[in-house]
Amino acid sequence: MEQVKSYLNFTFYNPTKIIFGAKTIPQLRNLIPKESKILMTYGGGSIKKNGVYDQVKEALKKHQFLEFSGISPNPKYEHSMKAVEICKKENIDFLLAVGGGSVIDATKFISIAAKYEYEDPWDMVSKSFFGDSKYEPKAAIPIGTVITLPATASEMNAGFVLSRESTKQKYDKTHTLLYPKFSILDPETTYTLPKNQTINGAVDTFIHIIEQYATTNRNTRIPDRIAEGLLDIIISETPKALENPKDYSARANLMWSSTMALNDLIARGVEEDWAIHAIGHEITAMTGADHAKTLAAILPGLWKYKKEQKKEKLAMMAERVYGKKEGTDDEKADFTIQKTIEFFNSIGMKTTLSSVGIGKENFNEISKRINNRFTILKAPPLGENADIYAKDIIKILELCNL
Amino acid sequence: MEQVKSYLNFTFYNPTKIIFGAKTIPQLRNLIPKESKILMTYGGGSIKKNGVYDQVKEALKKHQFLEFSGISPNPKYEHSMKAVEICKKENIDFLLAVGGGSVIDATKFISIAAKYEYEDPWDMVSKSFFGDSKYEPKAAIPIGTVITLPATASEMNAGFVLSRESTKQKYDKTHTLLYPKFSILDPETTYTLPKNQTINGAVDTFIHIIEQYATTNRNTRIPDRIAEGLLDIIISETPKALENPKDYSARANLMWSSTMALNDLIARGVEEDWAIHAIGHEITAMTGADHAKTLAAILPGLWKYKKEQKKEKLAMMAERVYGKKEGTDDEKADFTIQKTIEFFNSIGMKTTLSSVGIGKENFNEISKRINNRFTILKAPPLGENADIYAKDIIKILELCNL
């Protein structure tokens, strides 16, 4: 008898407190203990231009706090270590990350690095990859966040991604200690986002959902229905936010969707994939292309290459997200691929390799870089079934649009 | 200009750890600190018949634990206070509730009552209703649960309902201290549920969702889409579980749905109603009818009476849950009412007042009991807009099926 397809056993635990709504930043003063010595972390000047910086300073005017700025997209180990020094020297006992996913990711690393007992905190990121529990974090400075760029959901999950320039390494790390204590989501902070960041955030969110949803059908109706709902929201609300950047309802729906897309809930019970992300990361490392743009360029090729494996779910998506009730599963799967490309293009996101600086001449290098993951990092092959090897990468790239 | 309809500002915080899947009860031994002195609470004998009692004892064979049984449906203050005495006398420092919502609810009360500093713990339930913070709980014994009857979601929320026999009072109470530390959801524990309990659980879950979803449309797409997904799951999976009680996939979907239906998530940002529950509770108090049956009897009358107020959402439900894309909002709302009655009837749940022991001759008494809530408890009128008074109750009952 065939094994019944159903939920993989799982644990779900997400203790981050979400404060959601317009003009909620003043609540910071009650969310952070009065006696704390805070290090506020942020990136460039955008929070100074959009007024968030002033709102935070006003909320914390009775707290003691220092600032650490200059956190970049694809945040760096080397820069983060400067904040670690400040934390130790100044006895910082609360970290407040204000900005997008990169700021929060760097701050998560800082939170465990400042409490690390051995010599090099990078070991927690690189060596723990091989399962050596000696290098697991044991303590962290508590973190709160004010998120201003909805995309990564770092504000409500326990992961971060960090790069080390000197060694050209880029790793992700997940640990229960990394859940923020609280995150403030004020949709009004996104009114002034540049158009391309709204588009990138929507596509990043969309593909986060896809990496969890468009996998083997295991009759996991709860994550499936939530994922479809979130996809439906991205499709319907993104054009509204682009048309009218101060559409509160659209901004609120997009902001909460991006958090819900990667706060563990829709991952529980299902297979996860993340092959699109893995290939996209290498392209960003090679050409500096925006993360979301690389995902949009890879998705069509990956789906075409893995259509048989993912057919049931792609057909389900055609029925429940794109409203196509008629036809075979094969036709429905093709419909989903086509409609997704059309949606991305309609909001101004290209779905071609050339748009991220890649041509046929780069295929071998991308494949080689992925192969390094297997040989040097001893990482498993990509994909939900760990069956995507370096040779498959070439075939996937050949199915992408040039 | 009309106010933009969107999310009410909210806080979402739910720190309960969920352990989900077949054969997860042995994990208890690592979930509860080794040195704990545990009081295991349960109801009648069902956990002894279905093997759950033995699984728990086996898992905790290296722990020190006592037992407290006999917790009834609609659990009682008087009985719970016996457990409070045990907790104090035996220095219990962990409570493990094994059973359905009633067991968990009583255990939640026990957890705060055993730590209460003043004379009568009932004050935390009754007097805090009037906002006197003196009577708020300040500490609680930590709780874990093994849920065997999916319905109330008490395993992942911070609320309980308790009755005091001597004063004929029944109150609900919510407090952050009441989130269980963990809850084990093993779908296999529901294989042996009596058919009527599977039906009651499904209807209870369905109407929990409705009390949050079938309210004013505020463009709250995340809770809306999740609620629709959960309704879809109840409709599709309940018949499978009734047809084949050991259908793991159906049991798993129903179990996780009932938790998700009332773990705060779909309540955040929306108006909530709970009028169906309020009227149903009075009927249970009068005739002893099952909670879920009273809800199914009241729903048609409440929806007909409040159709104008709820029309947008009832029409949305027709489109997205029952697949009716054509027609006016009014026609769609009627369709939703009709299809919901048909669904309840199809799984063996009656939707008539006579099925819960109520006839026309009882309408005045129900109305009077509701009125007592306003005059004695100073509770606000019922419904999402607090516009349902005693006189409206008569009209709602007249629109129910006899």
Describe the fold and architecture.
2 copies of one chain form a homodimer. With 402 residues, chain A is an alpha/beta fold. Chain A has 2 domains: 17-189, Rossmann fold (3-Layer(aba) Sandwich); 195-399, Dehydroquinate synthase-like - alpha domain (Dehydroquinate synthase-like, alpha domain), CATH 1.20.1090.10. Chain A contains 15 helices and 9 strands. Chain A has a 6-stranded parallel sheet with strand order 2-9-6-5-3-4, covered by helices on one side. In chain A, strands 7-8 form a two-stranded antiparallel ribbon. The longest helix of chain A is centred in the middle third of the chain and has 23 residues, at 221-243. Chain A is globular. The termini of chain A are far apart. The mean pLDDT of chain A is 95. Chain A binds chain B through residues 4-22, 24, 219-222, 224-226, 228-230, 232-233, 236-237, 247-249, 252-253, 256-257, 260, 268-269, and chain B through 4-22, 24, 219-222, 224-226, 228-230, 232-233, 236-237, 247-249, 252-253, 256-257, 260, 268-269. Strand 1 of chain A pairs antiparallel with strand 2 of chain B, so a sheet runs across the interface. Chains A, B: One of its GO terms (molecular function) is metal ion binding. Chains A, B: It comes from Anaeramoeba ignava (Anaerobic marine amoeba). Chains A, B: Residues 198-369 form the Fe-containing alcohol dehydrogenase-like C-terminal domain. Chains A, B: Keywords: Oxidoreductase.
